[in-house]
Amino acid sequence: MRPTLLLATLPTLLLAQETATTLKDQKALAVTIYNDNLALVKDTREVRLPKGTARLAFQEVSAQIRPETASLRNLTAPRDFWVAEQNFDFDLLTPQKLLEKYVGEQVTVVRSLPAADGSGAKEVREEATVLATNAGTVLQFADRIETSFPGRIIFPKVPGNLRARPTLVISLHSSAEKAQQLELSYLTGGLSWRADYVANLAPDEKTLDLSGWVTLTNQSGAAYPNATLQLVAGDVNRARQRPERILAKADMAMSMAGAAPRMAEESLFEYHLYTLDRPTTLAVNQTKQVALLTASSVPVRKDYLLQGQNYYYSGSYGDLGEKQKVGVFLEFDNKESSRLGMPLPKGILRVYKRDSEGRAQFVGEDSLDHTPKNELVRLKLGDAFDVTARRKQTDYKSLGRQGKFGSVHESAFQVELKNAKKEAVTVSLLEPLPGDWEVLQESHPHTKEAAGTAKFHVTVPAEGSATLTYRVRVRW
Fold first, then answer.
1. CA nearest 183: which of 307, 305, 40, 374?
2. Which of 86, 88, 87, 89 is nearest to 101 (CA)?
3. How many CB atoms lie within 10 A of CB 203?
4. Are 372 and 422 members of one domain?
5. Phi, psi (deg, nearest 5) at residue 449
6. Which of 58, 60, 96, 259 is the most buried (most CB within 10 A)?
7. Tens place of pLDDT for every residue, the chain, 476 residues?
8. Which residue segment(s) compose the domain that 131 sits in?
């Protein structure tokens, strides 16, 4: 239809009789949730529309709907079906809102007064005008003004722009008078998801069993019954907008889903899409968990790491501390050959190990970023209790300028590692070296991990100790 004709018919559309649709009319519902408090809702309902102009009140939509993204499609009779205007009514019906809408209007005040003959109470009705509702109600009666009154107020009707629930009001044109399937799609805030992982470490710490859970949170102000649920993992760019109205967050109820097969996964543009194999219901103000994946006997490696600092190499420091922390890391390969091999959405991975009595104990957690297939997963679980280190600078020389280098330093270090365990361990020492550097002497060979990083591996015997010594020259 040409724009001039659409504008000409707009007043007729806005005056058309309103048809309401609720969740009772719903035939299908699909919800796609993104990481960053964003979801795409596709709500299909069967509605009987009149022929010609109509106003459709699409009730029970999200309270955090982004109205500018709403799109209504007619799946039954798309020919000569079009939308002229849509309005999101989020001014919800409450006693206070009802009073506010009646400022300047007449209401009926009902009081209970004792009967003159002592037979009980009788109701007395008076007409009054609502003057104001700021920090209290002000009513004007025929002979007085009152700010505090016993009794109740009767309103003649609910104003048309005050809704019992969030409603999208759509002015449209229908080609036929019959029941039609309409699909409303829109973006909304208030729906989010995150991944959580639980790993159970084997007694020999050589393998782990991994399970992934998706935690869904619905604070959108609407329920999504029996929805087809899909999740998008990845960092989707969104244009910045001015802050919108802030909705109060309600308390969340926790519900735990039972074990389920791995969610179906597929690539979607530069992201990954996960689909739940069954419909699920997202209730209002609810947190729900559904199974994402399971993997058993995944080979895992434990790494002890002592991290150095680059400032060690530019001055005289002597003893650098009685004890230095040795970090404990676990790593595994996200590969099919390791009984895993699927894109892992970002989340928290928590690791447990059973004690001598068979009770599972928490041994650490770390953040997991979006991890593609065939990538390495590396987690820091904490610092070792039985493996300790002490670092000492045994020599330092400032050699001044050398050629193009304005500053040259030479340092020697001794790192004593102790192991109170009943088995030997290997500790990796990662040394960030500034500028142009050269290892002059070393008791254990190093590898050049990166342009500014040297790495040593030192095996420490059971209930014993080992010492790394090295001398390094740095120029910058």
1. 40
2. 89
3. 11
4. yes
5. -75, -35
6. 58
7. 444 444 444 455 555 678 999 999 999 999 999 988 899 999 999 999 999 999 999 999 999 999 999 999 999 999 999 999 998 887 777 788 888 889 999 999 998 887 777 677 788 899 999 999 988 899 999 999 998 777 889 999 888 777 777 899 999 999 999 999 999 999 999 999 999 999 999 999 999 999 999 999 999 999 999 999 999 998 888 776 554 443 333 332 323 333 345 688 888 888 889 999 999 999 999 999 999 999 999 999 999 999 999 888 888 887 776 689 999 999 999 999 999 999 999 999 999 999 999 999 999 999 999 999 999 999 999 999 999 999 999 999 988 777 676 789 999 999 999 999 999 999 999 999 998 999 999 999 999 999 999 999 999 999 999 999 999 999 98
8. 95-154
Q: How far apart are CA 245 and CA 262, in angstroms?
A: 38
Task: Determine the residue type at 313.
Answer: Y
Q: Are both 366 and 406 inside the same structural domain?
A: yes
Of 224, 190, 218, 192, nearest to 30 by C-alpha is 224
> What CATH number is attached to the domain comprising 53?
2.60.40
Beta bridge partners of 341: none
- CB atoms under 10 Å from CB of 287, counted, come to 17
Sign, CA dihedral 112-113-115-118, equals positive
Q: Partners of 284 in the beta sheet? A: none
Question: In the chain, how many domains are there?
Answer: 3
